[in-house]
């Protein structure tokens, strides 16, 4: 049930903030955005260091006013709109400053509108949801006025925050669930003024160690070849600066992987990996910190007396460069693609 909702068009370039009244038939759109925000697994947890910050204080006021009476006065409705407008205006200011910081890169803050909703779900849980959603702009052919619209099919949520609320004699805030579509810091830090429950460094280390251990438990005992393939891909991915949306990360790692050992059940492995954030205490969305992955040793494989093959553990798809061969006499060889000219010349046979 939606107890209160508001909608603002935000134009960073012109500094315009326009509140729009939402007709009843727009509720289906709002419901879809709410569903995405509350059911999305790719989130990072944040805590509220100070309840007197702009957004948190305004949410507290909105919740207290809406629950104070079954029939709000015109003055109370005006107060609600004033507080929700303050939240939207705070976002506009922070996005303008963020745009100034990235102007030299040629990047642009994504255009969008801000939806706010105070809801009570089927489990009688209260939540306040803030979501920046995609909108498109066009100019009316007759009036030449700028208009805003929303796609009827795919609805993109650029950023969201879900504030779970405990309501007794007063409003108490729980851990906030934040989603962003990129690694922009302004949404959680400058706009919402929240503190990450876990740092990106902690998340990177915890996620890597948990996945590595799961691969060792479920893959290595059946197939060392598949274990090293997956582990090397994991190391390479974690040492590459990127935003991790954990369900997508797991799907990329194992979803389409074709194991050499048929006994490996990749669907079961994927399910087990998806359960790790709750079991091992890391977020489902974070930015990788390559330095959090400790220096890896090199894999060493004995070839023959006095010769061994050494492979850096963060080498991705190294098996694409190494092929096992057997000649007509039964002698076994490793054929290695050589891209280093000096090494190749050292071993090349001379006519």
Keywords:
single chain; 10 helices; elongated; 37-kD nucleoid-associated bacterial protein
Report what the structure shows:
Helices cover 36% and strands 27% of the residues. It has helices spanning 27-39, 54-66, 74-102, 186-191, 200-220, 224-238, 246-255, 266-274, 276-280, 341-347; strands at 2-11, 16-19, 44-47, 112-120, 126-134, 136-139, 146-149, 157-167, 171-173, 176-180, 195-196, 243-245, 285-287, 298-304, 307-312, 322-326, 332-336. The longest helix is centred in the first third of the chain and has 29 residues, at 74-102. Strands 1, 2, 3, 4, 5, 8, 9, 10 and 11 form a 9-stranded antiparallel beta sheet that branches. The protein is built from 10 helices and 17 strands. It has 3 domains: 2-196, no CATH class; 200-292, no CATH class; 298-347, no CATH class. The mean pLDDT is 89. It has 351 residues and is an alpha+beta fold. This is 37-kD nucleoid-associated bacterial protein.
Principal-axes shape call: elongated
Strand content: 25-35%
Reported for the largest beta sheet, the result is: 9 strands, antiparallel
The rounded distance between the terminal residues' Cα atoms is 83 Å
Helix-residue proportion: 25-40%
- Nearest-angstrom radius of gyration? 27 Å
- What would the average pLDDT be, to the nearest integer? 89
The count of DSSP E runs of length 2 or more, i.e. the number of strands, is 17
How many H/I helices?
10
Point out poorly predicted stretches. Answer: none
For the record, the count of structural domains works out to 3
Structural class designation: alpha+beta
Order of helices and strands: EEHEHHEEEEEEEHEHHEHHHEEEEEH
